[in-house]
Design a protein that fits this description.
The chain is mainly α. The protein has a single domain, classed as Orthogonal Bundle (Helix Hairpins), CATH 1.10.287. About 55% of the residues lie in helices and about 0% in strands. The chain is built from 3 helices and no strands. Helix 2 runs antiparallel to helix 3. The longest helix has about 30 residues. It is elongated and about 60 Å long.
């Protein structure tokens, strides 16, 4: 008997992708980046079974989003730091300007 997958049997989106892992939410940028590098290394190694690869990919995407959010927050803080003549913040300047 052959196993047949029908479109109804395949979920459109894995349930785990909907919510971020609480452990990831508490990671620093550096911790999340190291974890993401580990995920990439394991996936690129090609020795991980398919189901585990999918789980790793999901975790990697959560880690990527977390890192991007931390970078965006840091960028916003840097944009606010521009000292005026009296040493007080007087304007914002994008980090990449200048």
């Amino acid at each position: 008997m052959a196993l047949r997958l029908t479109p109804a049997a395949i979920p459109a989106k894995p349930a785990r992708m909907d919510a971020e892992d609480p452990a990831i939410a508490t990671m620093s940028f550096e911790e999340a980046l190291r974890a993401l590098e580990d995920v990439v290394r394991r996936l690129e190694g090609g020795e991980v079974p398919l189901d585990e690869s999918i789980g790793l990919y999901e975790r990697g995407e959560q880690l990527r989003r977390h890192c991007q959010a931390r970078l965006d927050a840091a960028q916003a803080r840097i944009d606010k730091i521009v000292a005026g003549p009296e040493g007080k913040a007087s304007a914002t300047v994008p980090l990449d300007a200048g």
